[in-house]
Amino acid sequence: MADPRNRRMPPVGVRLTTDVERRVDGFRARVRWTDPSTKKRVGRVSHVRTTEEVEEFFDQMRKATETGTNTTVTLAAYAASIGDRWKRGLDPTSTAENYDIGLRLRVLPALGHIQLVKITAGMIDRTIDQWETEHSASTIKNSIAPLVRVLDEAVRDDIITVNPAKHRARRNLGKHVTQTAGALRAHAIPDLATLRTLADACGQVHQSYSDHVMLSALLAARGSEVAGLRVGDVDWRNRVVKIERQHYPGKGGLVIKQTKGRRARFVPILDALEPILERLTTSKGPDDPLLRGPRDGVLTTATVRDATRWDDLVKGLGLQDLTRHGLRHTGATWMADAGIPLHVLQGILGHQSIETTKGYLHSDHRHLAAAAKQANKFLSAPTPGREPPRHDGPHL
Prior knowledge:
16 helices; hpI Integrase, Chain A; 3-stranded antiparallel β-sheet; DNA polymerase, domain 1; 8 strands; about 400 residues; alpha+beta
């Protein structure tokens, strides 16, 4: 199949002849040249409405004789012509798949019919404005990112000079949610007793579902990270659990890969979790999976949802807005309320940005009051080797 980027375009270095014919609804602009290989006269015609568009068409054809690229190609045709080239460096099991969906379902329907050279930053902004009324921040991010990557390829192919979507990727999509202190607390279970009630209800289906709930909450871990735990990750000497992999339901089936942050992190073993970990690690080798389902399969969040009839279950407990990922929010919220320093909590949760971690802080000023108390205690303590200042009288 011919490359859409070069279909019926003049070769580099050929001489062009142009002519324009007036029509009722506009103009018929034609460019002709002699094919160097066949010596035949060939050409390309465009029907436009204004004289400005006529000159634009001629300029595009002249540029093709300089670069050898088709500057009239649409976004959809160009994306089809480069295939998966724009996916280089992406994780094929998750990120690449999500970006591909965003490109197919949102970007191409909105902008695919437009020529690459005519796509502007304002046009992209208006498209994103429309997406924001219909989709979540993460969905929009997964739509902007592939657009940026495809247009980066167009820059490399000399079809466009700059990428108009480049700075659109920096729009603060949904960041006000995570940067507001306490924003993520709304997704948490209120207390340990309620968590145990939920776990017991899941345990009536099978014990593994109860263990999944407790591990996710008390380790503040993602469901895929719980599925990726091995017995050897439980360090009883230091009373921590090492989280360094996830068993992820990606494209093509379940895969084992690094955590979302691409680095290992350590989570302290809380007292409420200790008997569960003891039971799950007893008589197992260090490379054995820590938790598996009723049929010795991997427990994904979808598996837990379907097996426990999650939506009906949490609604009956008065937790109708609780998702499986809300279990991670629960553990993070409790650790924040316990007074764990923010930078330590960031390490436990594996956040790249501390702004995300701030979403678990209480919305009042209790942490500032605790900080003031610690600072006052430090400042009021005598410094070894230094006498406190003397006040013999007023200083004039």
